[in-house]
Each structure stands twice: as C-alpha cells, then as structure tokens.
Amino acid sequence: MVNRKRLDPDDPDRDFGVQLRLARDARGWTQDELASRMGCSGTHISAVETGRRSPTPRFAQSADRALGTGDKFSRMVQAMKEPALLDGFPEYVKYEARAVELRLYEVGIIPRLLQTPEYARVLADSAVRRGSITPGQAEERVAFLAKRQAALVRPNPPMLFVTMDESCIRRPVGGSAVMNAQLDRLIEFAELPNTVLQVAPYEIGERRTFDLPVNILTLPDRSVVCYAESQTQGHLDRESSFVLPILTEYHQLQGASLSQTASVANICELRKGTL
C-alpha cells in the first residue's frame, strides 16, 4: 500500500483536507479519479488534502459537485475566510476590559462572560458541526472568552449587571452535567459583591425591551458605549444620542424583571428539577 501522509486537522486548510480525503475514500476513489471528475490534477488534490495548498471557492464548489456533498466544502471555505469573531467585537472588548460598569442582556444562551468553559465548548463545537466555523476558529473563540473573563478579575472589578431572558436558563445545552454546572456558576456569580443578576421571565411579554443581545459599558470618564449584534454582524456605538435611549430601555427591562433574590431562587429550583 502506498504510504499516506497522516492528516492532523490543526488548522482550517488541513481540516478541509481531512474532510476531502474522507469523502474521497468513502467513494473508493483515488486522487487521480477525483481529479478527473473535478477537472484538475491529482497533484492538486494531494496538495489540498495535505494542507500544502489552500482550497479556493471554485475548488470547493467543484468538489461538492463531484462528491455529491451539497455545499459542505463551499461552506467550509467561506468559514475559513471569515474571522472567528464578528466585526466590531474586538474593538468592543478593548472597552470592556477597562469599563467600570457593564450592563448585559442576553437571549437564548447564558451570557458569555458567565459561561463555564464546558458550556462555551459545547456551543463552539456545535458551530463546527454545522459548518459555521472551523475547529481552529472554535479554539480561538473559547480561548478569547477565557481572556475576557480573566480581564474582569482585578483589584477593583467593575460592577456587572446581567439581565437574562428566561430562555437562557431553560434552554438545555450540553446535557445535564454541563447545564447543572452552568446553573451553579450563575448562583455563585450572584453572590459576588459587584454583581446583580436578574431573569426576565416570559410573563413580562411585550415589556421585554430588547429582542437581541445588548452590552452597555460605562467607562472611567463616565461616558457610555453600546454594543449590539445580530447573527452575522456586531455594531459598536459611542454616540450619546443613540446610547442613552438604549440605557433607559435597559433600566426599564430591569424594572420588569425578577429581583436578584427571586431570580436566584428560580435558578435553584430549576437546578433541582422542581421548576
């Protein structure tokens, strides 16, 4: 048997090559046979499989057609060209690291600054399985989150106000062990002297002021910045005429949400399986 170079998916190009070889092997094709169906050379296929040559969008589309893989390889190439972090987010994090107050609102998942490493890993791995990001980008996301969390542990930590939609604590992520540890983390967070944790229950209905995640920072000079993001884009705003109404809506949301005592009680009951 011809010696085959061991493929180690430690970067996006090699991950693409691993998946390409697996798909080719599953059909029992040689590199030359796949190349003939794609209109390229066997040497080209070999270079892509071993990570010595980066796949282009055209190559990925041709591979999908030849292998009958839908748009799998096209999506992988697209993910390789996109950063692991949304536009605007790295700039926001620079402000976050020196803020004196943070006000966070989240829907659907536990706010990132409160996520356990296991919870964060499950979300990142899920994105990899969907083809949204590469394994390398998943590692970058998890490591970047750990750095953000560590930056808030300092001699004079900021006040951290967190309001979560009820869906954040009810949505199961990673199985009972991961979720229970995450709920424990929330309870511990609420006990800190510089934190306020509130749950916005479903019952507030239309009084929920935000439909998307929102982060509001107060900086040492008392100026306020706001960061909001959709599924594909982040936006940082420092204009007070825009930010101050958002801050008002956050205060309104806090008023409609459960108190910290009631919020923690709900989390404890959910943790015990009695809610």
UniProtKB/TrEMBL annotation:
SUPFAM superfamilies: lambda repressor-like DNA-binding domains. Coiled coil: none annotated. It comes from the Bacteria. Residues 20-73 form the HTH cro/C1-type domain. CDD domains: HTH_XRE. It holds the Pfam family HTH_31. InterPro entries: Cro/C1-type_HTH, DUF5753, Lambda_DNA-bd_dom_sf. This is Helix-turn-helix transcriptional regulator. It comes from Streptomyces californicus.
